[in-house]
Design brief:
Length: 680
Amino acid sequence: MAAAFHISRCDLQCRLNNEKHHTDLNGVDRLIVRRGQPFILDLHLRSGTFQPGVNTFHLIAETGPCSSEKWGTRATFALSDIDKNKWSASVSRSSGKILSLSICSAPDAPIGQYSLTLDQGTRVSLGEFVLLFNPWCARDTVFMDDEEKRKEYILSQDGLIYIGTPKHIDDTPWNFGQFMPGILDTCLRILDESPKHLKNPSKDCSGRKNPVYVTRLLSAMINCNDDRGILKGNWSGNYDDGTSPSQWSSSVEILREWQASSCRPVCYGQCWVFAAVACTVSRALGIPCRVVTNFESAHDTNSNLVIELIYDENRDHISADSLWNFHVWVESWMARPDLKPEFNGWQVCDPTPQEKSDGVYCCGPVPVKAIKKGDLTVKYDAPFVFAEVNADVEQYIKFKNGRTARMGGSTTYVGQFISTKSVGKDAREDITHLYKYPEGSEKEREAFKKANHSNKLQRQGMGSEAGLEIKIKVSEDMRRGCDFDVFAVVINNTSVSKTCWLKFLGRASSYNGRLGKTCGRVENSDLQLSSGEEKQLLLRFCYENYGKHITQDSMIQLTALLIDKDTRKIYNARRTIVLGNPEVKIEILGKPKLYYELAVELSLQNPLSESLENCTFSVEGSLMDGKKIKQIVGSVGPSQTAKSKINITPTSPGTRKLLATFNSNKLSNIKGYKNIDVGK
C-alpha cells in the first residue's frame, strides 16, 4: 500500500471559483460557492505523491454546530466521477507536488458556513467556505432560467421602490448592497440568531436546504417583534429616539448597525424598509428576490376577505380593518416541492409585522399563482395576502346617536397597479395581472367565490351611486410649499330637485391610511341642485395651514360626505393626494473611474416662502462600498438654491446608482439618484 501523502497547504482558488460562481462581488479573499456547481482546489504536497487507484482518502464537508449525516449537515465522500446530484469529488489534475481536486456540493445541500476536511486515517483541515443557493443550477429549487433576470434579481445591488397613490406613483432609490463588505456574514448571523436555531440548531441547519424554510424564517427575523430581529416598526410619526423610516436609503447601513450593536433592533422601519432589507438578505443568500408595491392595499384583521371601514361623524376611522395607500413586500423565486408544480415561481413574503402566523409575526411564502386562483388552502398565509390585493370594501358611518349607515363600497378598489422595477432598466413594471384577473371580469369573481367569500356586494363604483353622484377633482400641479385648490363635485342624476348637506375636508395622512390633523375644511348645509345640475365646492389649501401638519409621506386625504336631506341617503368620496417635492439635481464633474476621486455637484431649490435651516446633502451607494458621505450646507433662503460639492471615490466597476438625500428643518428626506458608469 502506498504511503499517505502529506499536505503543506491547500489553495482554495478563491478568485477563480468565486468568479465562476458569481460571488466575486463579495470579494476574492475567501471561498464562496453555490450549491450543485463544481469548484476547484489545489493540494500542495509536502511529501509523498498521489497515485490514482492506490491512494485513498475521504473528504468531509460539514456545517452547523452539531453536524451529522442524519440531518444532512455532514457529507463524507470519496474520489469518483463528479455527480452533480450529490456531494462528490474527482481529480482534475495531478502534477508532481500539486493535486487539483474538483468538488461538487449537492444541489439540495443546506446553505451556510462549511468546513472541509481530508481524511486518510488522519484528518487535515483544508479550509472553510460559504455555500449559497444557486439560481444558475437547474437542479436547485431556486433555479431561474433567464440570465437577464438573474442579473436583476440576484446580482443587482441597487434598485427602485414604488410609493405614493394609484394616481401619483413615484419611485424612491434604494441601495440593497448585498455584496458590500460584511453583509454576507451579517445575513448568515441572522439565521443563527433565529429562535428556531437557538432552540434546535441541528434541525434548523438542516432546514436551510429549503428556500421555503429560509424565506419564512427571514420574514420573521427582518422584524424584531418575536426575536432578536433587525428592524423595529414605528408608524407613530415620532422617531426622535431613532431614525425616521423615510430617511433610510440603504439596507447596508441598517444591517451594519444591527451587527455592530450585538443584534439590538434598528429603529425604525416601515413596510418598504422591511421589504428592502428582506430583498438584500435573500439576494445575498442566493434566492432571486424583488420588491413589490401594492397600491390601495387592504389589511384584513378578521380573515373574512371584506374590509369594513367604519367612520364617525368627524371622519375618524374607528374600525380595525384598514386600507393603506400602498404596501410593500417581496417576492422570492423558487419551486414548491411541498405543493403542486403549478405553484412554482414567485412567492409572496411579507416581513412587515401586521398579523401573526403560527404564533409569530411573519407572512409567507405563498405562491402568487395561488392568490390569482383564489386557492386559499395553500401554505403560507394565503387568506391574508389574497385580502391585501382583492378584498371587497364596505364603508359605514356611525352617528353620535348610535345609528350606523352604509356609505357605499367597492369590489374593485383594493389592489391597484401592483408594481416592481423592470428587468435591466429604471422603469415600472405592472404585475397586477399576475395576482388577479381583470377587475370585474367573470374569472376574477370566480376566484373570489373560490376563496369562500360569503358576502356579496352589488358592483358599485367607489364614491358613486345612482341618483346623486359625488367626486373629487384636484389641480394638476400640487407641490409642497405652494397653495392649491381642490373641488368636491356633486351631480344630481335624478328627475327631481335635491337639497343636500355637503362636508368637504382634508386631513394629513400617512401612507398606511392613518389620519392626522385637519388641514382644511368647508361645509354647505343647504346645497340646492335642480334635476341634472352639477355644482362644485372649492376647498383651498394654504401652505401656512397644511405645512405644519403633513407627515413625512407628504399626503393629504380628501373626504367629501354628501347627505340627501329628503331620502337621508349618504354618499361618500375619498381621494389621497401626494404633494410633489423639489428635485435633487445631481451633476457628475469628470469621468468616473475605479479608485479615482470624482466630484459630484448637488443642488435643490427651496420652494417655500420661508428659509430652510440646518440643510445637509448626503450621498451613498454600492459604488462606494455602502459608505455614506454627508456635507452641511447651512441656511437657504426662500426661492434660493442649496448647493454642495462632494468628492467620492468609486470602489465598484460597472453601472451603479448614486443616491443623494437632502435634509433640513422644513423639508426632509428629499431623494434623488443618478446612474453612473464606472470604468475600470
